[in-house]
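Consortium newsletter contribution from the modelling node. Members have asked for a concrete example of what our holo predictions look like. Here is one, prepared for the iron/sulfur cluster complex that several groups have been discussing at recent meetings.
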Amino acid sequence: MTYRSITALKRDQSTCRACFEAGYPLESLPVIAPGSGQRAYLFGQAPGVVEGEERRPWRGRAGKTLRRWLDLDESSFYAAFYCASVTRCYPGRPASGRGDRTPTTEEQRLCERWRDEELRLLKPSLVVTVGGLAARRLLGVRSVGESVGVRYELDGAVAIPLPHPSGASSWLNLAENRARVADAVELIHAELARR
Ligand code: SF4
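And here is the predicted structure:
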């Protein structure tokens, strides 16, 4: 199904239960991008428990870290970025009980329809991926570690990957990697300043 407006898309997206109906254990309803009129598209992995409860993106600790990296307060962040993710519902805990469950490949595939429609309707001039899964799904890169600090093209948009700010990865412990995040943030600000 194609949509004529992002408002109509969000209305249907807010009640999507495709993964639940396919037998997957979701623990929230879809998290919807707040605001309107953004020209940049932020693409993360999946909501966490806080985001699932509030049904708003990037509300927890990772969101605070991301805004600190970008040096943006909350209102500037949500005004600049349409916040989307590989899957839109909080997936719950994995069997180990540690962290959040990574959505299955089938859930990722089921949720692609929302991403594809959003990109078609919004035509963002800047796309920022956050975390390895988002960069692999959208940009086809092999590893987010290799791609941070690099500027990509995606259907006419500039695409810039960031690592995930959850703190789960030790990749950020190395000073040279933190410098690459700073390079990526500089590229993002240069692109934001252009629009
Ligand atoms: S993760 Fe995406 S496809 Fe699955 S139920 Fe939520 S919104 Fe629908």
